[in-house]
Amino acid sequence: MIDPMTPLFLGSHPALDFLNTRCAPHGETVEYIGDGRSFIEWLVAAGLLDEAGAAKMKRRLGLKALDAAAEEARRVREWARSWIVRWSEAPAADYGREAALLNGLLARANSRRELVISEGRLQPTESNRMESVDELMAIVAVQIASLMTSEEPALVKRCAGPACTLSFLDRTKSHRRAFCSAAACGNRAKVAAFRERQRKG
């Protein structure tokens, strides 16, 4: 059973987890970024924004601006969903217009690169200054860009559960993953197959 209060992280990639913030199990739509507060909470739960950054954004911007950011996030999500589905089916197509739109989102980032010492070694880091709502969408855009430049299009799949709308990246060795979750949709499919065998027997 899908809990409408707890975001799902079954996509094996943050970009697909972002698409899965709107799902329709059993025909009933669940929306995980219905307002600005839930959008911020999802970014934190996804590991894309730390607690300090989230608190800073809430103080600096207020709920009205965050609600507007959530509204934009929902629009971007549906646009990205359409593009990712087409890309997974036809990776060699011309996506110049989509790339330009994504670059516009990426350009909103206000990031800073610096060297830090970690375990006695110099390590490069990049941090977002988080001064405007623009940076929230830039965080998501980075993940969409990462998916589409670092992963195989054919491994982006839709759950085989008949009532499931979730997407995932098939990272299994055999690339035969069919369900968003073996414990949920996978188990339901096994039960349905068992009952069908009993009925025929």
Concise structural overview:
This protein is 51% helix and 13% strand. It is α+β, with helices and mostly antiparallel strands and 201 residues long. The radius of gyration is 19 Å and the shape is globular.
Describe the protein's architecture and organization.
There is one protein chain. The protein has 201 residues and is α+β, with helices and mostly antiparallel strands. The chain has helices at 14-19, 36-45, 51-89, 96-106, 134-150, 182-200, and strands at 22-23, 30-31, 111-118, 121-128, 156-158, 167-169. The strands form 3 sheets. Strands 1-2 form a two-stranded antiparallel sheet. It has a two-stranded antiparallel sheet with strand order 3-4. Strands 5-6 form a two-stranded antiparallel ribbon. Helix 2 (36-45) packs across helix 3, helix 3 crosses helix 5 (134-150) and helix 4 (96-106) packs across helix 5 (134-150). Residues 189-194 have low confidence and may be disordered.
* Major sheet details: 2 strands, antiparallel
Total strands: 6
Q: Strand-residue fraction?
A: 5-15%
Q: Name the average pLDDT.
A: 86
Order of helices and strands: HEEHHHEEHEEH
Helical/strand content category: alpha+beta
Gap between N and C termini, in Å?
30 Å
Q: Tally the helices: what do you get?
A: 6
Low-confidence parts? 189-194
Strand order of the largest sheet: 1-2
Shape: globular
